[in-house]
Sequence to fold (158 residues):
Amino acid sequence: MPSVIPHTVPHQHTRVSDVRVTRVPEGPVLVESLLLGTPSGDDLALDTLVAALRDRAQGSPGYLGEVRVDRSDGRRRAVALWRSPTDLRSFVHAAHPDLLSFRATTGEFPTAERTLWWSPEGAAGVTVDEAERRAAHLREHGPGARAFTLSSPVPVPA
Fold:
């Protein structure tokens, strides 16, 4: 699958915005918090990568929408909703060419920290602060019901 990253990083700023939840089913949804960074902290390159991943996610099965993208400390935290870990895993595999293209374009490979959890109410109450707390919990305590990874998924709560 071809990359959606442009061959050159645009000279104008790619807008990173809030709340783009498109469709949320009844019941629990999978929340993904993805923290992206680069060794140089290049804001323009990171915004381009986030926009490319957002574009690819739009057409991915099981993608329910973006809750928020937050810019801080030369990194981006994108919070999105998915139907299942299987759908998210398929997206991650499909997005691999974008990461390779990003590396070819910028000379850097992005760092990524992905934290997952189930939200019983969909997007309600999902915030960047909550994402940061859950990521810290995952780093400190390892995977469990409060926060987990694609390598250690937790079943949907009853």
